[in-house]
Design brief:
Layout (H helix, E strand, L loop, with lengths): L14 H17 L9 E5 L5 H5 L8 E4 L2 H4 L11 E4 L8 H4 L3 E7 L2 H13 L4 E6 L16 H7 L6 E7 L8 H21 L8 E3 L6 H6 L4 E4 L1 H4 L5
Parallel strand pairs: 1-2, 1-8, 2-3, 3-4, 4-5, 5-6, 6-7
């Protein structure tokens, strides 16, 4: 098992740096709206920083945070100021669901029936309905999580009996080294799928959120229809890029 890298502290990420980067990103999102939509919402990916740094986001009104490893995320939660909302953005093993089920605000990476069954079971035990996004492997990369686009609608129809999971949209991760043209095509493909599934009006399913775009491509994602972007590196770099 890989040992997680040391987390960035308040000495490495100042409040001033964070404020500057947040403002720049919010400005970018405002300039890159999809049609007449509201700007995409910033999910601050906090997997590389300490609770001290996460708490600096609260005065900036950034309350949506993203984590991807239970052993890193869960010790942070008691040390956070109130009102933060935990988005689970990494591939989730079924045996880790029990550790996060009480804390997670939204699961972005629902990608298989076995995971849905475990989330349903654990959520029912603690009396919760978990908002979730279906992860789609739009690029077809073998190493990436997510289901192929053609499998999403049949999966959504299977979710009818899962009363403790509320599907609210889709999520995707793009190739790391794709060109802007390639990224634009993939983001458009995700938005097209999102809109098609909204028209299907599957019972109990909403197409409200489209989570796509990261530090290197969030402006393109926002322009092509993301409602949420997941940004880590660009938040914490002193240069802002």
């Amino acid at each position: 098992m890989n040992t997680p890298a040391p987390l960035l502290t308040g000495e490495q990420v100042s409040a001033e740096c964070l404020q500057s980067n947040v403002q720049r990103i919010l400005d970018d999102l405002a300039k890159n709206r999809y049609k007449n939509s509201q700007p995409a919402r910033l999910i601050a990916v906090t997997k590389t920083v300490t609770p001290e740094v996460i708490n600096l986001l609260k005065p900036l009104q950034i309350l949506d945070i993203g984590e991807n490893r239970a052993q890193v995320a869960m010790p942070k939660m008691p040390l956070l100021e109130p009102d933060f909302r935990l988005h689970w953005i990494g591939r989730l093993q079924t045996n880790k669901v029990k550790y996060i089920i009480d804390s997670v605000y939204m699961l972005h990476t629902l990608d298989r029936l076995a995971l849905a069954q475990e989330v349903q079971r654990r959520a029912a035990e603690c009396g919760r309905v978990i908002p979730a996004l279906v992860q789609v492997n739009i690029s077809g990369e073998e190493q990436k999580g997510g289901m192929p686009p053609e499998e999403v609608l049949p999966f959504l129809r299977q979710m009818k009996g899962f009363s403790n999971i509320h599907i609210q949209g889709l999520m995707s991760i793009m190739p790391a080294r794709a060109s802007e043209e390639e990224l634009t095509g993939l983001f458009r493909g995700m938005r097209r799928l999102f809109d098609q599934l909204a028209q299907e009006a599957v019972e109990g399913v909403e197409m409200r959120e489209l989570s796509m775009g990261m530090s290197g491509d969030y402006a393109i994602a926002a322009r092509e229809g993301a409602t949420m972007v997941r940004i880590g590196t660009a938040l914490y770099q002193p240069s802002g890029r």
